[in-house]
Amino acid sequence: MRAAFDAADWPNGRFFAHSLAKVMHEYKVSENDRPAVAAKLAALGAEAEAAGHFQGAGTYFDAASSWYAAAGDKVSAARMTAAHAESWVKQAEGRGERGSQPSALVAAKFYENAIQVLRDVERPQRAVLRVDERIEELRFLQIDAGERSLGEMGLVRTPGVSIEDLVRSSRQAVAGKPVLEAFADFCSLYEGVDLERAREGVLQRMRDSPLQALFGKTILSRDGRVIAKRPAMGMDVQLSPSDEESIFAGMVEEHMLLLQFVVQGQIVPAWQQLTLEHRVPEGEFLELARNASIVPKGRAALFAKGLYAGYDGDFVTALHVLVPQLEHLVRHHLKAAGAITAHLDPEGLEKEVGLSSLMEMPEAGKVFGAPLCFEIKAVFCSAYGPNLRNELAHGLLDDEACLSIPGVYAWWFMFRLVFVDFWNSQHQSLAAALAQDRERQQAQAAAQADAEVGGASSAPPAPSESR
Description:
- This protein has 23 helices and 4 strands.
- It is mainly alpha-helical.
- Helix 7 (104-118) runs antiparallel to helix 9, helix 14 crosses helix 23 and helix 15 packs across helix 16 (300-311).
- The longest helix is centred in the C-terminal third of the chain and has 54 residues, at 405-458.
- The radius of gyration is 34 Å and the shape is elongated.
- The N and C termini lie far apart (142 Å).
């Protein structure tokens, strides 16, 4: 085996020596001669690189790094790791604008691979090999390729669907009614996600299209950054955590498609009808927020300002006010339920965690319920969705994003959260008042009946008739 390995070359054997090296490592062949095996692998990598086969070069450089590390030669191992990274860079350059098969999307992925490989270089060797500087250079190249990759994406069109009847019924649902009743019907247009049905729908889609489930998905931001990677589904009957992540990503994707119909066919037409019939001042929204127990103390004015802005068509202001208040609302109610919403850093400072971490706490499901938790994750803090909380916190939301379907839905979601709580509390108060009135009327009737019975018993007997 060792003789065959030593005699191998790239033009004739290509990956044969690499396969032999794996078997030699497994059965401890040439265990005492690891530096020589590593040097041979490095030489084969150089031959592949000279032949222009950069994928093969990277494969051999990676194997050489492992053998050098096993031999205790950390310097040579780091050098081979750097060479492995540069093989990815050369592949990225080959897919650049001047390559035979240009693809900025593929080039961005290859630059990412190079950066990830360089990060494996141990700290003592980084300065000698200029690893940190090289990572910085590759990051600029990756960003540039990512921005150019957006131009390579095609638009997939599906047959149009008429929502004319949906629009008409949504307008009629709120038309010609008192403002509070119209608001109640406005909040009832969409009842929220059915988690069990949504999950089963994703699983059925994966069963119907198994190839779709076998491949992962990379999600890019509007400026070409990779912001999420949906893992592929495994083949095991028992679902793994990675499979659950893939299912969740599919549920978010389906939810975003559904919201296009909800917003364009229901929320926007009904909102237009409401604003046509009712001119509601900001003070009325303040009363709503003050009388909704879900709104934390001292935040009613902020909620009112955001809700009024959205009702008035200013969704830019609405999102910038309401999204941070949603995070505070979640934190407030989780604290009330006994959750610890802050963590200690290494210096002993307490820092509040963000919305994404808050929604992963076990108390979240108990306080808000699973459907509401899913919607908060899907719309506000999941990279598989619009991720409005994090996009807004980092200043990445532009005017178009605020006026988008997720932006409008986020305002309606917050309006529904506040108004439904207000409406329920008012109905409970009204029901309690009616019950008190009924009890008082019953008590009065009973007292009157007792008085009539007592009066009849104290009256003198009537004279009997004589024949």
